[in-house]
Each structure stands twice: as structure tokens, then as C-alpha cells.
Amino acid sequence: IAGITQAPTSQILAAGRRMTLRCTQDMRHNAMYWYRQDLGLGLRLIHYSNTAGTTGKGEVPDGYSVSRANTDDFPLTLASAVPSQTSVYFCASSEGGGRNQPQHFGDGTRLSIL
Amino acid sequence: GENVEQHPSTLSVQEGDSAVIKCTYSDSASNYFPWYKQELGKGPQLIIDIRSNVGEKKDQRIAVTLNKTAKHFSLHITETQPEDSAVYFCAASSGNTPLVFGKGTRLSVIA
After folding, report:
1. Is the separation of the CB atoms in B80 and A27 below 8 Å?
2. Closest CA of chain A from B35, distance in Å
């Protein structure tokens, strides 16, 4: 089934450890996004990429980095995890590079930092 | 930057009744307004969207209205069913900025 695949589905991580969340899409969408979802705060954009080779900062980028080496993959890295990064992380993609396009979401990674 | 406010945060309706969720936005340049439905353990799914060149759009039991002058847009679900129970998010974008989401509405349809 075409769409977005996120891995892992859940993870418990010790504070200070490095973690990479994986995201792959098979729709050949140009734009990709990472959000975090926290209770009562909705979806907040961490980083985005309008096309392969480019990235941009969202609303809450601190403590996170991304790369976009090709069209299909958009990994999110926590260099040194902290408890405040406990959240559910969603990857999304959209056609073209413009923002006025429907976004397609994966089913998320539930991350707990202890 | 854009700020999107969504109300109510929770909503309970009887099966068969209508549900209305309202959002306001701050950036008058915003011209794209999608609505997403999120079921438990899943990612958000687009259910309907509207662009600023139309005032209303319908898709079966779902409709969205847009008032650009007042900078608000609403989601209307008629003849609600238990499977409509979920969290709903509105969002807004100007095209030059990423989507900004509301904080969500938890809809419960009581059979």
C-alpha cells in the first residue's frame, strides 16, 4: 500500500542517547515534514523539506536535525535526547514544493525519554 | 506568524445529530484551509479542504465554510455516526508558510 512508513513505531530511550526516527514515502512527493504531537498542543512543525537537498526549520526545531539526501527518505535525529522530547512524532509528505497541498501522514513514532 | 484557534476542545453529540467545529486564523494572507481526522493510534487523515476562492465545500455528510472577512472557517458534520468519533484538526496556510494546526477537537458520538 502506497504511503508513508515510519520506524520504529515506539521506542523508550535513556536521556542523553542519540536516536534517529526513520520516514520513507513511496508517492514521489517533493515535500516532507516532521511534527511532534503533545496533549493539548496539537501538531507542531519541527523541520520540513520542500525538495531533496533542502531543509528548513519549523516552529520547534531545537534539539532536532534532519537531512534529505533523496526524495523518499527524511530521517529525524535527536542528537542527545532529553525528557521534554517525549512525544508522538509524525512524518508527512505532500506533492510539489508549495505549502497549499494536502499532506499525507504516517502513523507515528511514540518516543519516551527517561 | 499565523495563529490558529480551534473550538471546542471536546464535543459530545448524540448519534444522528450535527457537529460543528470552529477555527479562527490571524494571517489575512492565508488561503488554504484543510481539516484532518485522527483516529486512535493513527496519523491524521485529510477529510476535506477549502481554498479562499470558495465560501463552502461539501462532501457527503461533511461540509466546510469559510468567512475570509471574519477570518474563520468551520467544519460541519451532519447525521453523525459512531465512526465519526475521533480528534479533528483544522489548519491554515498562506502558501509561503507551512501549515499551522489548531489544537484539535475530540468528538464523541454517543449511540
Report:
1. no
2. 10
Neighbour-count burial for B33-61, b at 16+ CB within 10 Å, e otherwise: bbbbbbeeeebbeebbbbebeeeeeeeee
**Burial class of residue B83 in the structure, from the number of CB atoms within 10 Å of its CB (0-12 exposed, 13-18 middle, 19+ buried):** exposed
Band of the pLDDT at A98, cuts 50, 70, 90? low
Helix, strand counts (H, E) of chain A: 0, 11
CA B75, CA B80: separation in Å to the nearest integer? 13
CB contact set of A113 (below 8 Å; sequence gap of 6+)? A13, A14, A15, A81, A82, A83, A84, A85, A86
The mean pLDDT of chain B is 94
Q: What is the pLDDT of residue A100?
A: 79
Give the gap in angstroms from C-alpha B87 to the nearest C-alpha of chain A.
10
Integer Cα distance of B29 and B32 in angstroms: 9
The residues near B80 (Cβ < 8 Å, ≥ 6 apart) are B13, B14, B15, B16, B17, B18, B19, B61, B107, B109
Interchain pair B44, A99: CB under 8 A: no
Residue A96 clears pLDDT 70, i.e. is over it: no
